[in-house]
Design a protein that fits this description.
Blueprint (H helix, E strand, L loop, with lengths): L3 H26 L7 H8 L6 H36 L11 H15 L9 H26 E2 L2 E2 L1 H24 L3 H12 L7 H20 L1 H7 L3 H6 L4 H23 L5 H13 L3 H25 L8 H21 L1
Antiparallel strand pairs: 1-2
């Protein structure tokens, strides 16, 4: 007899994929240079290729769409894990301070090295994301250092320490930003707001290994995540190695967040909203929640980027700002719901 929950998960995934495909189609065909459906298909299938169409689709729009989907999927899955490990429905990747650590590292790079480093080729594109990645993992080291209690990782201390580190790094970022010249400050502000504007295939290749390696590990440990919801003592009595699994789950989710922030800046609320929507759609089984949350996150960022680049065209609004406009009311709704 087929599992109704599994069937529901497949149905929900199909609908979300359709929404994601709709956003991708609009992003491919709409903009300062519009394309018809036929022109888009011919360009993608390499039928009578036109140089201008190739440039618009393959150099500008397609890498932006793919990177948006990868970043959104990573943030959605990471948010699911963080909420599961902490057993706190209001936890999200930005709370842990990873975004703030990456932001500070990138702003420091812009302040001290932007325009003075003579680097060409691959490294010229990747140097800033590499700084962001290092900054994110430095924040992680501080979080782990202060979240340990009696040799155990305390979920509540993890959130409190993350908030404190995010506040400290945020203050330092603001101080350094105010010392920058106007052009660098503008670049830093756009990056910190969470933008896919500079997307390219090198950024996509940077994200791919994280999305190939880490999500299967999270899915493999999803049963442990289900049992942790019963309480750590109950999970231990059921044979779960709670401390080991918490470290594996958190490190994988932190890797996804750090990689995302390194190439897109600080996109907030995806890791908060996507897991809640996934639980409402497919229930409480993390085997289903994780992939559905990833798809919802991908759709959110793809649509957020599309709205941001079209609503005020030719000016652009960062995807992180568009998602925040939606996320703040939803965050208030969750607070009121939990209070009731």
């Amino acid at each position: 007899m087929p599992d109704p929950l599994a069937s529901r998960g497949w149905s929900v995934s199909a609908v979300i994929l359709a929404v994601l495909a709709g956003g991708a189609y609009l992003s491919l065909t709409s903009g300062m240079f519009d394309l018809t459906f036929a022109e888009m298909v011919k360009t993608l299938l390499r039928i009578d290729p036109v140089k201008e169409h190739d440039l618009v689709v393959f150099d500008f729009r397609l890498p932006r769409i793919v990177l948006s989907a990868l970043v959104g999927a990573a943030l959605g899955m990471a948010g699911t894990v963080i909420q599961g490990v902490t057993r706190n429905g209001l936890a999200e990747p930005g709370i842990l301070g990873i975004n703030a650590g990456a932001g500070l590292a990138v702003v420091l790079f812009m302040f001290f090295f932007q325009g003075s480093m003579q680097i060409k080729g691959w490294m010229a594109v990747m140097i800033m994301p590499m700084f962001g990645l290092v900054g994110g993992f430095m924040a992680v080291l501080l979080i782990y250092l202060f979240s340990q209690q009696n040799g155990r990782l305390d979920p509540q201390r993890l959130i409190l320490v993350g908030i404190a580190i995010a506040s400290g790094f945020g203050a330092a970022t603001l101080y350094v930003s105010l010392k920058m010249n106007p052009n660098d400050f503008e670049m830093a502000a756009v990056w910190l707001a969470g933008s896919i504007y500079n997307a390219n295939w090198k950024f996509v290749l940077t994200m791919l290994p994280w999305l190939i390696i880490l999500p299967p590990i999270l899915w493999w440990k999803s049963r442990s995540l289900d049992l942790i919801q019963l309480g750590e003592d109950s999970a231990i009595s059921l044979g779960v190695k709670v401390e080991r699994d918490k470290h594996i789950l958190l490190l994988c989710s932190i890797g996804l967040v750090a990689a995302s922030v390194a190439v897109s800046g600080s996109i907030g609320f995806v890791g908060l909203i996507a897991p809640h929507m996934a639980r409402r759609l497919v229930g409480l089984n993390h085997t289903s929640i994780l992939p559905v949350s990833g798809l919802i996150g991908a759709a959110m960022v793809v649509w957020g980027d599309y709205v941001g680049k079209t609503i005020f065209a030719p000016a652009e609004l960062a995807a992180g700002i568009v998602i925040s406009i939606i996320g703040v009311p939803y965050f208030v709704f969750l607070l009121l719901k939990m209070k009731r």
